[in-house]
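User: Can you help me understand a structure? I only have the sequence.
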Amino acid sequence: MLRQTLNDAMKEAMKSRDQATLGTVRLILAKLKDVDIAARTADSREGVSDERILSMLQGMIKQRNEAITLYRQGGRAELADKEQAEIAVIERFLPRQMDDAAVAAAIAEAVKATGAASIKDMGGVIAALKAKYTGQMDFAKASGAVKKALTGG
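Assistant: Let's start by predicting it. Here is the structure, written out as tokens:
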């Protein structure tokens, strides 16, 4: 379903002559093709699931945020602005992001559901969060919150 949404967005950007959106959607589709090829097996030629696509999109946003930091440090505001515009396009294909309170509640629920008692159980909590909330939260930030919750900090 997400794959079709991306293809439709590319067609719409072509019709409206929106070059910024078109370029970003083409980057997303190229990355998706790479991910599909890497996931192929002898038995399955199917594309990756929507959950994997959401994870890929979050990774693309993370890469662009890192690039923005480097461009700003290097005094290249125009390149940082271009990366920020790409993030805005990519975010259109992600579900609405959870706010801090919702993330904290989801972490508390996952800790309780997995029976996590120490930092050693962090992997299980993160796995439970990823299974339920892929595309809806930033797992880099969430892992810090999980660590804090499990250490009592």
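Now, to help you interpret it: The radius of gyration is 18 Å. The domain at 2-91 is CATH 1.10.1510.10 (Hypothetical Protein Yqey; Chain: A; domain1). Let me know which part you'd like to focus on.
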